[in-house]
């Protein structure tokens, strides 16, 4: 085999390798995003059955917005919006509290050494590594014990509801917030804070004027992550919810037992659009902070 033949064979192998990599990337993206694209397309399906395409329509969006009655759907529009309202309430409150607590923990772990530091750092990863069903069951057992203790001491009967769902979501969201914010704090140049202290600012003023503006993109990204995780959660919500505390994932799960109409696809598409807007806002904020 001469040198030219070897060169051609080598070029052919490289070409096949590059083609194989592009095919692999294309299949990977198709696996991730093709189901989402199908969901968006079938949200405009005129048929009440997702498996059958019978034409383009906006009736499902109009029924969700209350413009027309949902005559062609077995799905209660009021039930969908009630479940979505519960999900938004839980996600907003839990992400806000988790962001505040997670940011404080991130600053404490990155800046200070204190008794129990290693233990706290280890416990921080538990909600991320243990199975979600284990976390849900443990939260249910813990809350049941607390409810019985309160009833025995005060005679007040407590039950599962939106507050318990919020507590459950805060529990697993704090870990994600702490890790994201801590990474941002670790990249912060401590000399900037030291310069502010040398110029006469106290620690609170340094945090307000220097630290917080510099780590704000990380805090905002962490809050979006916590919001998304809460909005999408099913297992923890299933074990910690009660009567009148049905979130959107639980509502969709209940509808799957009967049928999933394009109205579910429509509201999922709207949620996807909102998520994209939040993501673009986060990227814009991060880019602006990087330029500054």
Automatic annotation (TrEMBL):
The lineage of its organism: Bacteria, Bacillati, Cyanobacteriota, Cyanophyceae, Oscillatoriophycideae. Residues 84-282 form the ABC transmembrane type-1 domain. The chain crosses the membrane at residues 21-44, 84-109, 129-150, 162-181, 210-229, 235-256, 263-283. Gene3D superfamilies: MetI-like (1.10.3720.10). It is a multi-pass membrane protein. It comes from Limnospira platensis NIES-46. This is ABC transporter permease protein. Coiled coil: none annotated. InterPro entries: Bact_Polyamine_Transport, MetI-like, MetI-like_sf. Signal peptide: none annotated. The keyword Membrane applies. Belongs to the binding-protein-dependent transport system permease family. CysTW subfamily. Keywords: Cell membrane, Membrane, Transmembrane, Transmembrane helix, Transport. It is found in: Cell membrane. Its main location: membrane. SUPFAM superfamilies: MetI-like (SSF161098).
């Amino acid at each position: 085999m001469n040198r030219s033949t070897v060169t051609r064979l080598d070029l052919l192998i490289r070409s096949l390798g590059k083609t194989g990599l592009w095919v692999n990337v294309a299949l990977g993206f198709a696996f991730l995003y093709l189901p989402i694209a199908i969901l968006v397309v079938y949200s405009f399906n005129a048929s009440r059955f997702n498996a059958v395409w019978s034409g383009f329509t906006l009736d499902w969006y109009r029924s969700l917005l209350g413009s027309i009655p949902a005559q062609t759907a077995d799905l209660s529009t009021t039930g969908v919006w009630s479940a979505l309202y519960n999900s938004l309430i839980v996600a907003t409150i839990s992400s806000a509290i988790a962001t505040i607590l997670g940011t404080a923990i991130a600053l404490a772990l990155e800046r200070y050494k204190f008794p129990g530091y290693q233990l706290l750092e280890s416990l921080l990863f538990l909600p991320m590594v243990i199975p979600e069903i284990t976390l849900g069951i443990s939260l249910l057992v813990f809350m049941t014990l607390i409810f019985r203790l309160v009833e025995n001491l005060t005679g007040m009967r407590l039950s599962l509801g939106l507050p318990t769902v919020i507590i459950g979501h805060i529990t697993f969201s704090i870990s994600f917030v702490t890790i994201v914010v801590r990474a941002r704090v670790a990249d912060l140049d401590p000399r900037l804070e030291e310069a502010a202290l040398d110029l006469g600012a106290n620690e609170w003023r340094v945090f307000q004027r220097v630290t917080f503006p510099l780590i704000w993109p990380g805090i905002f990204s962490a809050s979006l992550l916590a919001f998304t995780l809460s909005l999408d959660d099913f297992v923890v919500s299933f074990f910690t919810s009660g009567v009148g505390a049905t979130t959107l994932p639980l509502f969709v799960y209940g509808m799957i037992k009967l049928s999933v109409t394009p109205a579910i696809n429509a509201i999922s598409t709207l949620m996807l659009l909102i998520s994209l807007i939040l993501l673009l806002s986060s990227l814009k904020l991060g880019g602006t902070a990087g330029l500054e």
